[in-house]
TrEMBL record:
GO cellular component term of the entry, any: plasma membrane
Annotated Na(+) binding sites: 51
InterPro entries: Na/ntran_symport, SNS_sf
An MF annotation (GO) of this entry: metal ion binding
Protein name per UniProt: Transporter
SUPFAM superfamilies recorded: SNF-like
Length: 296
């Protein structure tokens, strides 16, 4: 296409909405059977957009239902409210300045928060501790993980994240679109959009920890570490309650057949059932589950 127009590739192919809605469609018209390829291309965009929306909406709805378990029976209404709010926000991108807003959101929201999230996730290793985190993973997956992961958590992950931050700062340039540099107030809005979602995580963690503090003389790090350890102990205690609850099949492992008489597949053992039952027990309280083999 650059050769057809007699322009350098750098001037023809640029990032942004124009690449999808201008460059690719024009390139498709120059291919054999352009109508066929145009249909496939737009169908791909439709499937990709729907798939992305499903993932985003499900993430938001799951977070809401986990925070307020009482609204789980009204999940349809929660989805309707979330989609309606997203629709109203999306109207901003349909205005005359819509492409500039798309560029602003794409530049700030889709890049910097991911790096900041990586920094926040490293606090699990630095505060909670890699040994405890490794034990929690073992409890969830039923097997020990390699020490190689601990080496990565302490070395490669922090260094690579730091490198990404420094590289982003070194290559940072004022936001522009079609040769027009965005005004300063839009840059401030962009940084607010990038930082605000990330600040909610440590802000809520600080609030949740301080509301549980009994000794105000303790340091914040000590309080946070003690809270994380107690939360992990609560999870293990919940799993133990499920195992020892009267009538539970896990309390009498002999009642669980090694092979299902219906499907012929191996039945899950105790270590495989604990993670799922732990999650259920924390959400709905102790369970009395009676697994009985059904003969055909």
């Amino acid at each position: 296409m650059a050769g057809h127009l007699g322009l350098p590739v750098s001037r023809v192919v640029r990032e942004g909405p124009g690449l999808v809605f201008a460059i690719f469609p024009d390139a498709i018209t120059r291919m054999p059977v352009p109508t066929f390829w145009a249909i496939l291309f737009n169908l791909m965009l439709l499937c990709f957009g729907l798939d992305t929306q499903f993932a985003i909406i499900e993430t938001v709805v799951t977070g809401i239902t986990d925070l307020w378990p009482g609204v789980r029976n009204s999940k349809r209404w929660i989805i309707l409210i979330v989609c309606s709010c997203a629709f109203l926000i999306g109207l901003l991108f349909t205005t005359k300045a819509g492409l500039y807003w798309v560029r602003l959101f794409d530049y700030f929201v889709a890049s910097w928060p991911l790096i900041l999230f990586a920094f926040l996730e490293m606090t699990v290793i630095l505060i909670y501790g890699a040994p405890r985190f490794a034990r929690n993973i073992t409890e969830m997956i039923g097997r020990n993980i390699s020490y190689f992961y601990r080496i990565l958590w302490y070395t490669l992950v922090p260094l690579s994240t730091l490198f990404l931050v420094l590289a982003s700062w070194a290559t940072h340039q004022p936001l522009d679109y079609n040769g027009m540099v965005f005004p300063h107030w839009t840059q401030a809005v962009g940084w607010l959009l990038a930082v605000l979602p990330v600040l909610l995580i440590p802000a809520y963690a600080l609030y949740h920890v301080l509301t549980e503090v009994e000794d105000t003389q303790q340091s914040f790090m000590a309080v946070l570490r003690a809270y994380l350890v107690s939360s992990s102990a609560d999870i293990r205690r919940g799993a133990k309650e499920v195992l020892e609850s009267p009538g539970s099949a896990l309390a009498s492992p002999r009642r669980i057949p090694p092979v299902s008489s219906i499907t012929g597949r191996r039945m899950p053992n105790e270590s495989e059932l604990v993670p799922a039952l732990t999650v259920i027990s924390r959400a709905q309280g102790p369970l009395n589950i009676d697994f009985r083999e059904t003969h055909v």
